[in-house]
């Protein structure tokens, strides 16, 4: 009985956080290890289910790195990289699209629905929700069908949220003519959070957060302001794949999202821990 | 960090129960010790807050025994009892009404609102919600302004629930002419649960539940069917103040309420324990 | 038959006034003698019923002077006064609250419902509708639980009005922590009229209105502008209990209430006479 | 002041009737003298305005006898009659339609709007609201464009009522091909009351009601059941133009209209007198 | 089969125009020959039906020239003209009103309903939709009951459009006292288009449009800006009955109507041709 | 100009059909050649766009035969067939799912959106819309992840239709555990039509319809009743891939779908021809 009461106490402790996030939208970018480890995948979706039940509106954006590589291998398509971006021919794009929409997204939707979430899979092509163009600003050189977000139309997402569905979004954009573009999932999440005027953007990664010294976990930076973050990019403390994550946070913050987080997705229930406890984990970037 | 993750696990464990009760109405009768012990009072209202945040619609009905006695004393009004019912003159009724509506109800509403629930205090006189008559059927003799429920009009309660308020109801009824009646709060809760077609009726008491032998807690009866309950009243195993509680459950069950519970209100978070764990506590009466 | 036709003519004469007030909100402060004389009480509520039926939305605020004094006597609590304000300890406040909410309000609700109004009793504690603080601005010295209005949240009142209920409000406020405050009912009525952007505020009193010479009824002032009213307070022509009434009118007028009235509540149907005839009675204060 | 208070008392006396008819639909057939005497016309419309303001939904159906005759004369068209029905060629029908829709209806609408009712003129041709066929059942012989009601579609009327308009209906029907038919206005009113499931049907006439002896006003029949009314038609006590009035009442009663009345339209405010006083006037026919 | 496919191709060609006008309001003035030739009348209404089915909201305003003259003749009323305006006594006005509302409007409504449009006939007197005054500004001298539009209240029209009815409006206005005014139908159409903020105003005439040389059809002016149109009135290239048409267009354009057209109503399906093909016909006036 | 008027006439001819299908749902199965020939694909989607604009609600279900085979080849996966069904291992199912959802569906959605339809891609896994089980009833032997429909939940489709989106559905089902099943697209279309209580089900094929003699196009059967269709299956006149098409029609007809069609999808605009002309094409099966 004592154990039962302790359980009840823990539910009660979460109350103030439920109150704070009630009826707010939270955009969650879900990628890296969390997507290949089946148990972590289930753990993340359980967190999403709980958010839904306590009145939060979660929107999930996923990446697809390893699955894409795996598919390209099966098709024996070799691709070159330029500064971390995959040079993407139309043939490659078709495989990427199949992997993201027909495999990663569809598997996530299956798992989510079997956990009792009313999940619906979407891509930026549905209702031309994510209008994209060839990546130039972010990518410096033309890379084929690597895209950057031109505009997110939140109508379809909002009608899903209003009908109590959880949208799970594949990071594929489209132009008006119907060409597909592969877009960095972090940036898609940032733009969606901005378009939905979400309360929070959470990017799950394979690290503890932003580290001053990438070799030393004890150098985790807990909080950053936009200006500080920009400085650290300039100072090359923030490098590589962390740059689009930080940029996604800045995009979101500049359009009325309140808080953005870079979290360790390898940790069980990192979403719940961030939302329902005082001990924020990972790095929080704010205005 | 380990402790944090255990907390997250406990939230996750509650998920299937949140799912089950999402958007359902639960009527809670709140009386006895839970009303005099300030800590228990807060604990019950915390539970109610949590129910509200996870999408359950709670309706609270309270009693008022000790506060009524205390008020009558201050007025130096002595009252006689007949078979457990207080013989209630108009003068006594006025004090009872002041105690229930102007003290017990108003204090509960205050506490609930300070905990962040949008609570609104009501009595059966508002919109003539609880039509009552002199108690005859239940009471055998005429006892003055002791009433029994004639009909509950759920309109006002439903409009409160739809607007996301938590109604807190004092067990005072009225007749068409405007006379007030003091009604047993358990019976009021049963009738309200019936009128609202609630999912669950929970009666908080000062005992563990229904005991075969009132002296021996190990004889707690976990489950009873309606017929068995009626038999135990006839056999005088269920006696005294437990009779209206059991009758309230039967009233509710006969009008589409699914489950009814007689719970130990002296236990911290008994409401959450009953709803969010497998180990039902107290006595459950079902069809 | 001729008499019948005269009756019909009188109904017809009221038409232009029905047109003017259709679907408008009117806040009525109800106090003094009108509350102790049973016949006057019924007469006021009949007026309210008629307003409701011809499409006006009445909101009633009541005081409670004599009932409060009576209750304090029964509890043998003696209280001191400072410049007309009762010094209110927590113990006194509890009796005041019981008297206002558990006796005056509840009796008015009963009477109103038996006349066919769908009345619901409220206090400022419901949904923390009237946030209050210790009276300092208006009272000069700290007087215990005598409060002044900090803010009125009209949400609950508006949802009542939209559902066709007539709210009857006891002048008890609350702070965020749940402490209760006794507030001058005239001021509460003024603040509620302001928050609801009511069409009209009507304060029923025990006098003919504002008199130049309180001893001479023929010196009734029919109309006053805000500036004139303020001047007459400075000149001590308006004194005593009339000051908060005039201040309530000014509060309401400064927030888009169109007309405010101080009426003789001892007169049968003074509300109807003011609204449905050309002969305004009492004193009207306008911008 | 005493006179004022008597006025207020009369308003108060009407309260129970307001309560009874609140939000109910009342269909009023308006014809005969009430339509030629300007003062009576205004008096009827004032009654309608008052009904509207106290929450009743009036629907007006008018006849047009004298205006039609007057128009036919101006066109120098002579017409024959068969058992009280005018034999109606297409040419005659065109004049009838112009008189009913372009003169009687339009004048009533003007007058009503200038009194502050939101009146909208309609005929059975709008949205093919009144489908009609050549009168055979009621008329025995074919009479050209004299019609009888086939079906009333209440959609347009209901959308008018929901938007708070007062529909004023000319008794012109149409077939699917668009031919117009002149229909007895009493029968149209009866069918509309039936289709709207109105609370009351009121037919204004040029007599006191149904008289046992048409020469003797003291023989007014106050109440009739359907069966009695049918018997009196058979016995030829009810004859001539009174027959379609009685049939209209029967049609309405057989489809859930509660009460039907044949009233003296020459009396000022006969509608108000019938609705707002105990002394029913004229003849009431009930189930 | 080939023919069938060509038909399908033509439907497909209309698609971009359907898209453009979907859910937009189009006001159509319908007069002159189109009103006397039965086949043209049907052709216009078929066009309107099609507009309705592809999601456009048509509102029709009609004139009545020849029918009015015909009626005045039958009444043997002679009338004088001043600068193209008929001097209109009250007696004349009554005949005009009967002709417009009781004959032209009612016939259009019949025809439209038999084609499957849900048509409802209205005049400016319904709900005092078109407030008018004696024509002075436009007419220079007082001409009796010739009116000009003071204000159009779009409420009734909007509620009709929302309920999917097609309003057909007779150009009769009213003042607050209920007097009727005959108003130029082109001007009424322009004011209604302005009040509804319509997408398009289309005036059907008996000419090809505005001609530089009225004798030479090849001088048709396809497009005009407001300023050019005003200049051509000053230069007396635009004269006579074309002046109010051009003024109606200007009125509409100055209140957010996008495009206005003066079309040849003698041409079959001129409305569809204008809306669903690239080859605009007639004269278009734009900002 | 003459040509223009002929175009207008053709639009007008389509009117009665627009009327008939206004606001009705039509389910279109789209497969075979129509899916590999880019021009036909565009032609079908143009038809869908037009349906949408004239107020019909289209729902598209697609197959994927050739694309699936093509993908399996690229993966070098060989599959056996049993009575026309592909034996489907989990590995094969994954490729099938990618091909259907990540290639066929996504390409259709792109094309549709670039034509101006608000298209959203769905599969039976979204919100577990199509619950499936291993095919036994229809398939006789266990074939791995070949499924049959257990139940279609129309909620998601209906909310899409209500928000004016055109759903494009891939024929992939799911069980409660989240396993995917490849289901015959004709049967999926039939079940969806049944669940939506659609007006019409149209199956586009590579033949003229059902032929008595498959070698002789002149033996096309224009109409069949359910009973006749069943007989022809028994008589082996209807064989092979035509059997599930006919069964899909029967499923739909037995649940309130009015008409079902097997059409020649190789023909340009076959959908429009079937809906908007009298000359039905292909085979219609009715109750």
Automatic annotation (TrEMBL), chains A, B, C, D, E, F:
Reaction equations catalysed: N-acetyl-L-glutamate + ATP = N-acetyl-L-glutamyl 5-phosphate + ADP
Localization in the cell: Cytoplasm
Predominant place of localization: cytoplasm
EC number(s) stated in the UniProt entry for this protein: 2.7.2.8
UniProt keyword Disulfide bond present: no
Superkingdom of origin organism: Bacteria
Biochemical pathway: Amino-acid biosynthesis; L-arginine biosynthesis; N(2)-acetyl-L-ornithine from L-glutamate: step 2/4
GO annotation, biological process: L-arginine biosynthetic process via ornithine
GO terms, molecular function: acetylglutamate kinase activity; ATP binding
Annotated Aspartate/glutamate/uridylate kinase domain residues: 24-264
GO cellular component terms given for this protein: cytoplasm
Positions with a binding annotation for substrate: 64-65, 86, 182
Keywords for this protein: Amino-acid biosynthesis, Arginine biosynthesis, ATP-binding, Cytoplasm, Kinase, Nucleotide-binding, Transferase
A Pfam cross-reference name: AA_kinase
InterPro entries the record matches: AceGlu_kinase-like_sf, AcgluKinase_fam, ArgB, Asp/Glu/Uridylate_kinase, Glu/AcGlu_kinase, NAGK-C
PANTHER family, sorted: N-ACETYLGLUTAMATE SYNTHASE, N-ACETYLGLUTAMATE SYNTHASE, MITOCHONDRIAL
Family per similarity comment: Belongs to the acetylglutamate kinase family. ArgB subfamily.
Function per UniProt: Catalyzes the ATP-dependent phosphorylation of N-acetyl-L-glutamate.
Protein name: Acetylglutamate kinase
